[in-house]
Design a protein that fits this description.
CATH architecture: 3-Layer(aba) Sandwich
Oligomer: single chain
Shape: extended
Structural class: mainly alpha
Number of strands: 4
CATH topology: Rossmann fold
Strand order of the largest sheet: 1-4
CATH class: Alpha Beta
Helix content: 40-55%
Amino acid sequence: MLADEVNRATPKAQSALLEAMEEQQVTRRWTQTRLLPDPFFVIATQNPIATGGHLSLPESQLDRFLMRIELGYPDSAHERQLLMGQDRRALLATLGATLTTADLELLQAGVSKVHTAPALLDYVQARRLHARQRRVP
């Protein structure tokens, strides 16, 4: 599922998105609950806060997202390609599947079998702590 501009959605819509992510279900009018297919995942975009008109997710809800990727703005050459090119939404119709559901489930099952050395976990935690300390004024 792709939730575009989640920080511009109403609190009710944000709540529905979080229900889908956490409980893997959606509820309609507080009475009809439907389970989401498995596998199911969410990709959400948000506009920069500086653009205004936003309803940011609370910090306690942001932790439900696995990663945050900032794309920034394209350089002049790539911006020109975008401006001169075909509508990118039209290109979606030409995309094909790269994995079957069975392939994805197999990959997901394999994740729990990957060994992570304690020294690597120590390193990752130390880097994260260092990054947080640099942001604190």
